[in-house]
Write a structure and sequence with these properties.
The chain is 57% helix and 6% strand. By secondary structure, the protein is of the alpha+beta class. Among the domains are: 92 residues; 92 residues, no CATH class; 94 residues; 78 residues, Gamma-adaptin ear (GAE) domain (Immunoglobulin-like), CATH 2.60.40. A hairpin with a 4-residue loop joins strand 4 and strand 5. Keywords: Cytoplasmic vesicle, Golgi apparatus, Membrane, Protein transport, Transport. It is a peripheral membrane protein.
Amino acid sequence: MSPSVPLQEMIRAIRSARTQCEERGVIQRECAAIRAQFRQADNGGRSHNLAKLLYVHMLGYPAHFGQMECVRMIASPRYSEKRVGYLGAMMLLDEKQDASLLITNSIKNDLSNSNQYIQSLALCTLACMGSAEMCRDLAPEIDRLLRASNSYIKKKAALCAVHIVRKVHDLGELFTKAARSLLTEKNHGVVHGAVVLITELCERNSETLERFRKTVPDLVQIMKGLVISGYSPDHDVAGISDPFLQVRILRLLRILGRNNEGASDAMNDLLAQVATNTDSTKTVGNAVLYETVLTVLDIKSESGLRVLAVNILGRFLLNNDRNIRYIAMTSLQKIVGTDHNAVQRHRGTIVDCLKDQDASVKRRALDLSLALVSASNIRSMMKELLSFLSSCPPELRSQTASGIFNAAGGDVRDETVPNLIQLITNTSELHCYTVHKLYRALLSDISQVCESGWFLFSEETIQTWKLVTEDDVLDVLETVLQSHMSFPSTRGFALTATMKLSTRITENVDRIRSIVSIYGSCIDVELQQRAVEYNALFKKYDHMSLFCSAAICIWMHLNNVQSAGLSPPLCGVSQVCDLLDLLGGSEQPLQPSPALGSTAPPMPVSTANTVGGDLLDLLGGLDLLFKRLMHSPWLNTDLKLMQPSTLSVFSVVATVTVYEKDGVTVTLSCEKQSDSGLTVTLTASNSTESDIRGFTLQAAVPKSVQLHMKAPSGDSLPARGAAKVTQMVVLNNPNKVA
């Protein structure tokens, strides 16, 4: 191909290339020819060569070697070369390159040229790639052109001023006066540029915003003229007079009327007129109506006007264009909190959008449907949402299920799981029903798993439901752990549930140990940590599960014994929160019961036992407690084989209230640190209406026990339980005196 071929021939040769390698070869040969001609001093085809280079740039090939040629052509006196030079500058140069500064003087000279088209080239280039330095240098020239008599130049100068304001905010004040005067122009292009410039100035400066609020009546008159004007062939678009200018004016009115009642009142009538007179059958009409709706909802408009705006959005929901339906639901989502009743009127249409084929529309419809759920429509809305849940795409299932749960789950968000568990835990009558429902669901869908499998073996469950065997439950949990469909969090729930079942299951403990031990080397760190910790519990407390089961049986039997009128039980039944009454918080003294049916008198025990006395028994009385348990005739023989060290499982003692009078409550909780050491935490609160100051906590112990009281958290108790005072006490019983 000859280097002198015209642009059309080069384009034809590039398009005829069969491979990308062939195309690169054509471009490389042409670029080499262009570069050689650029180096010639007298080159009459510079504009022709630069035009070809710009086409090469559009194809994505490097063309930076033409930047200096652009600078030279801009300085040319010929219009044909200036036009290509300015076009090349806008495509090849930007404000980060030093070459852009070389054209500043040329632009300044061309802004003063008598030819309006040369002025236009300079204005377009400055508005496209002018740097902050160029804007500061040429801003006075732009302000001068804003006052020119030529409408063609003024509209381009207005748009150039917008670029300058965006680059250098401080120069906005320079164009304020000229921008307001442009609103009186008859030329739509000049008015359009003025509206865009005023919008930019108002968004940048609050003082300028207050100043331009006085132009609201002028803008209203311009807008009314566009709405009621007849057919104008120069500005008509599908029956709407200059919809581009209408949209710009509505956006500016929205900014001026925001948080200002005076400006809002001045435009209410206009907005109502536009909303009722604009044709909604055409896309351009919908564009104007949408801007009208946004303006009505953003200013301090009348309530009737806001209802009219919501109704327009409701009509948009029935439009065949999915884009219009999408923006309608997006707008309704923003106002559903403030105009809930108005949006509720379109609930049926919104719910129908759940059946839309477009995924984006369906997602917006789901968000809006969930926001519309209220106490009055919850039954009907739940019916629609459950129907949608059964057929919705997988990516929306989690959001739908979580929304249903939060409005009135396997597909729920992570934060929903503890909420549901807490709800079930606080409602005892739901325990049996919920666990069995989840168990049955788990048989068909392994994505649902709970940690409350031990309810399956409760007495209430066995009486109410068909018996579920230990192997059945373990089979299901093992399936969940081994399934490739289970999420890591699901496996974590299943492993924890399996571990908890070790306190209920007696014949399959070895199987549970085997299941847990497998995951001690799992690649998932969280699952591995759980398995290692559970294995450590199994190894350290070999009889833990047996002791827990026995303790639960003791507690259930104690209630039966007392209700039958037999001899006093081992511990006070009223201490529900403390299974074995290790603190002896009840008024009943701790004493062993005789054998059932025996008439032998009970062992004498001092009735002076108090909470403090029994607390000391924890330090040296574990052996005594174990012996008393062994005297019980209704403990199975397996428990009697346990060592006293097994009781260390229960080293954490429940909280006990030790003082409650005149609004002051003191609670005590303790934790065993070693065989002879115990840490006690005292917590005080004040439920009265006045603060208590100078508050101190004191404690006394026998001489055989060492007492160390640490500093309290404070000496004042705020009223109404606003804060608590805590103090830690360390007890040591080195001689293990009972």
